[in-house]
């Protein structure tokens, strides 16, 4: 039985409020109007509205419940009084409870003795320990669509909620609904604008990188020709038995020319002038070869390198020499970071592999200096380096990214729990092909 529910006919004004009640209502709406104009945070605005409403109606508790995207559940967005921490973000079905009835029907309701109303949902009180005696709810409607419910509970003086109280709550619910909807639209517009700006920046960056790549490729070709000539003449002169002091100087010239040639090859790789020759290969063989190669170098003698590879082969489609270049570069960077950190124990590098769905992952982690948060997004940019002047060209990681991208893969970096950085390469798996059964 719903013996104590106050029916509200929205086709006519039920009662003419007294002078004090009207003044209170207008004052409340004025204050809410001021908040709407000064508060840009949705949750903060809803909390201010609920707080003023609860105070004006002399209620013990109050809340705003917003409909979720499905329209089937109400979510406690703001809760004041009662079990505030327990109810925050709690979900209730629109098919149960007094608030659910109000949301479902779009009608306000006063129930001054919830124990006598079959719609009352006792589960909320059981979960919170709050005792609801009376409740007053108003739907929050925008363009004939219910977006939520504003409710107040238990008059502080123990008296019943009145129809005049409900008129006030309805006025507040209407104002709050418009304010909340406008803030949502405003936030959506800002998000869309920021997303467009981000897309435009990415487009400009892509165009810049394309232009830079084209220019870099031209420069690399132009410089490679004279470097090749220098190397050829150095080799010819060294083979002719020149004096030792000239021999020594020529070797320096030859070695520096070779270093410049390696930089030119990196530039060409970055600018995608060298296409990979993809074939099915075991990535573990590449990783083991790279690790063994570094173990015998003088720079890595004091560094402990360990492997944590998934069992069995790890088949991908790739260019063995280019993938070797990627992981050699990552290991060299890890060694540099460890030396920069000045580890007393020499430092540690871990090379690991795993399988995630249709992707093979291979990572190189170190306990070096790590990378500052502001520099993390820039590490793959060409010519960007965290090393001292003269210690790096800033092309190593951009070249790695170019190679991995040509392999239809991804490369990412993050700081790890050891204090250093972890670089992870993701490549599409190329599992073993099943042989066709004999006919």
Secondary structure: elements and pairs:
Layout lengths: L4 E2 L12 H20 L3 H15 L2 E9 L5 E8 L3 H4 L3 E3 L3 H9 L3 E3 L10 H7 L6 E8 L2 E11 L7 H76 L5 H27 L8 E4 H13 L8 E5 L6 E4 L1 H22 L6 E9 L2 E8 L29 H11 L3 E6 L5 E8 L11
Parallel strand pairs: 9-11
Antiparallel strand pairs: 1-5, 2-3, 2-7, 3-4, 5-6, 6-7, 8-10, 11-12, 12-14, 13-14
Describe this structure in words.
It is a single chain. The chain is α+β, with helices and mostly antiparallel strands and 439 residues long. It folds into three domains: 185 residues, GAF domain (Beta-Lactamase, 2-Layer Sandwich), CATH 3.30.450.40; 75 residues, Helix Hairpins (Orthogonal Bundle), CATH 1.10.287; 150 residues, Histidine kinase-like ATPase, C-terminal domain (Heat Shock Protein 90), CATH 3.30.565.10. It is built from ten helices and 14 strands. Strands 1-5-6-7-2-3-4 form a seven-stranded antiparallel sheet, sandwiched between helices. Strands 9-11-12-14-13 form a five-stranded mixed sheet. β11 and β12 form a beta hairpin. α6 runs antiparallel to α7. The longest helix is centred in the middle third of the chain and has 76 residues. The radius of gyration is 35 Å and the shape is elongated. The termini are far apart. 30% of the residues are buried. About 3% of the residues have low confidence.
